[in-house]
Predict the structure.
Amino acid sequence: MRILFINGPNLNLLGRRETGIYGRTTLAEIKKRVLQRARALRVQVDFRQSNHEGELVDLIGAAPGRYSAIVINPAAYTHTSVALRDAIAAVGLPAVEIHLSNIHAREDFRHRSLTAPVCVGQICGFGPLSYLLGLEAAVALAKNAGKQS
Ligand code: DQA
């Protein structure tokens, strides 16, 4: 089983970006934790990041047939991107939206997610743990999808 992790804009700056909100853990460290947990669960993970909306759309579009589920932190595109929403809806793979921060406890413009309605669910507010919870959810969803097909 392969799970695709997708990280949106500015998440490459984790560790030094607004540390009061996002903490000091870098994306490389989060990736390490996710891969470690994935090994224990015996699943394969590809972990990607891009600051470019079109590149994220391409990653999602190329996922069917290669991955069983998607875990996505669309970052700022959560709140703006019809293109990402449409891409997730188009591929029909189970997707889990994750955020480090609790977007519902922040500025009003972060309360709305354009992508969450086309995901199975959203996990937010747990810092780097959101990624591990996202992995658990994706593995469960992929196993379930396998049973149904
Ligand atoms: C974020 C929350 C978004 O509102 C923000 O634009 C980000 C990070 C998070 O993980 O908490 O870049 O997705």
